[in-house]
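ENTRY TYPE: paired fold submission
RECORD: A
CONTENT: sequence, then structure tokens
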Amino acid sequence: MSEQNEHTGACEEYRSIWGHLRELEFRQGYLDADGVRTRYVEAGSPDAPHVLMLHGTGGHWETFAPTLGPLSEHFHCVAVDMVGNGFSEKPDHDYEIPVYVRQIHAVMDHFGMDRTHLIGMSLGAWVAAATAVRHPERVGRMILMSPAGLVATASNMARIRAERTAAVNDPSWSSIHKVFEHLIADESNRLPDLIALRQAVYRRADTRETIDHLLILQDAGARDRNLIPESDWAAIQAPTLVVASGKDHGEYRSTAHTVARLIPDAEVFEMPEVRHWPHFEDPAAFNPAALGFLGK
């Protein structure tokens, strides 16, 4: 009887990505973007102001599951699996920043987004910032979380490459779980179906075959030629909110505050108790801040 009660209690506390989506009207599909079969999710009225959401390295659109519902009440929201990531196509060439920017530009064209707000996390923040530098007329406001693209240390690049390569070579539950230890601070927020999704991606043959293409930005030479120089950060015209995650890797914490100083009139939103995925780990804090900033 006690085992049954214990099991029932565990079920009552079960949390899932679907908990964020079950009452949301949304559409998932695939589109051709710069020749890449691209997985996307869309929510909200197409007549509302646009918001495009970009995940981090190895990610997929579900990282924005806690954000889609609240934001789609006011905005037309689209999140994608970027080229070589998630369940999108993984062509046989390196995925450097211009490749991502072309794909994002094509996604915007597909959805008729002459101008859009951008929300990017880590690699997604790098791509968002590069888009704002190269196509300023198409970017409204930006929210950058755990931003990359300013500096790169050899130790952090080596850590990411080793961690992700190990997970792809051995996509066991424990191996995937180790990846999320660096992404989400609180164990209770490392949802089982989130780990299962990443496991499904890493078990794919095309992921194993193209992992070096995906991790090209962890190589010093490629990283250096793709980094955004300080002068370009300082030239960004888009009003920007930078999320500073207090428990994130030191490189991302320092980058957040540095780019906030470089981008004219950027604002900083401090989230001291979260790690690399602030919007996923604490949507109760992130979503109102995002709505307030994007709605200005």
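RECORD: B
CONTENT: sequence, then structure tokens
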Amino acid sequence: MASKQMVHMNQGQGERSYVLGNAQQNRMKLLIEGAIIDLYSRTSTLLPEMMVIADLGCSFGPNSLSLVLVAVEAIHGYCLQFQQAPPELCVFLNDLPDNDFNTVVKSLVTLRRINDPVVVTGVAPGSFYERLFTSSSVHLVCSSSSLHWLSKVSEVLRRNQIPAYYINDHARREKLPMVLEAYAQQLRKDFRHFLELRAKELVTGGQMVVSIIGRHSDGIAPFHIWDILAQVLSIMASEGVIDKAKFDSFYVPVYGPSKDDLREIIQEEGSFSIKEFLVHDFLIDLDSALVTPSWIANQIRAVHEQIVVQHFGDVMDEFVRITERHWSLDTSLMQEEHVGLAMLTLSVTKA
């Protein structure tokens, strides 16, 4: 995660924890394997004796090692294929300091048991909107489903006390373009800054593979990517479960960009060239039979519980009850309202 608000995933590995889908892991896997091949092809005949891999926004649990394991295996496979001595590897897992790093450190034992190549592991707590590594020291950066988290909410909204989500339908439709433009501006600032930071940390020819929850359409989106959360909280405010004034001052530091948004920022910043850019429906990988009201509630809880509790107090049991009630009426609501959501997966090379 990126924002300095308490936005880490729920701790643990149960039904309240978030798990990356297999299809998305496979797409990341293909791009990471391609990045390793490209990285080696850009070096001289003397291959590097040491390589550094970093996963930014690693979270914890089943997904925390998935990307770096792919990278380690790809490097090992490449060296076997071309009968090269594998380099020593240094693997860093990054997330905000409030992340459950106890779980992360325990999972790192899996990597340290790999003897060929030698793998040294570590954690790098901090926001990825700050410097994390020394200059020209990292060969591969990975990040999965994290960069839609912003460093902060737009000051324009806070300063003018403009709610991110209006309970009244007419007001919400009227104000939505302005609200989303404020979010889009923050995304542009943050993503450009992210690229500038990584450009300093990556070696020349270094690779970066990231996935971001975004949208298909260009221009201003017709929805928040956290609409379901906002809808349920608005019902809770209407029913008096949470204070309406608190609801009006609640902002989630998340924005879903389009492919063109990211391409434009990357080209303007200038430190990276785009190799591959994949766009997939956000819901296409899900088994529709599994998308039950209970599943929806637990997924939202896994991602947003910490920030909701921080702002409203311990209201999650009531949140789950209302979520299940809302979507038990029509489970197709999720597909209808979020047809524009997309998973953006891209691979870039430092110039």
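NOTES ON RECORD B: The chain has one domain: 22-350. The chain has a mean pLDDT of 86.
STATUS: closed
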